[in-house]
Amino acid sequence: MVGGRGGPGVPVVELCGAAKSYPGGVHALRGVDLTVRRGELVAIVGPSGSGKSTVLNVIGTLDKPTTGTVRVAGYDVGELSDAQLSALRARHIGFVFQHFHLASGRDAVDNVADGLLYAGVPLKARRARARTALERVRLGHRLSHRPHELSGGEKQRVAIARALVGDPALLLADEPTGALDTASGEIVMELVRELNAVGTTICVITHDNEIADSLPRRVRFRDGEVVADSGTPAAPSAHPAPAPARNPEEVRP
Question: At residue 230, does pLDDT exceed 90?
Answer without folding.
Answer: yes
